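FW: tagging you since you asked about this chain on Friday. Here's the raw sequence from the shared folder, copied in full. Didn't touch anything.
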Amino acid sequence: VTVSDLALILNGKGILSGTEAVFYQASRSNNINEIFLTSLALHESGRGTSQLANGVLFTPTDSTLPPRVVYNMYGIGAVDSNPILKGAEYAYNHG
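HL: got it, structure written out here
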């Protein structure tokens, strides 16, 4: 699989479009199959269109910490009871 192959897969897929070189390098650096890594990102991010993939402003309950925009491409921590808040909180805390 080449970077060009990944570009064909990711073209027009929201925030993932244009990131083919990043996926290629990440797969090589971490010994993960390129198609698996790309497919998982497409699935978990709603083809690059989910709120968490595109960035969510998270304001912590601790007022001494600043709010910031966080990204959670794979929806880690995004539980069904409140997926956006929980996914954003996870991204903020594990940033």
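FW: The first strand starts at residue 56 and ends at 58.
HL: agreed, and The mean pLDDT is 97.
FW: great, closing this out.
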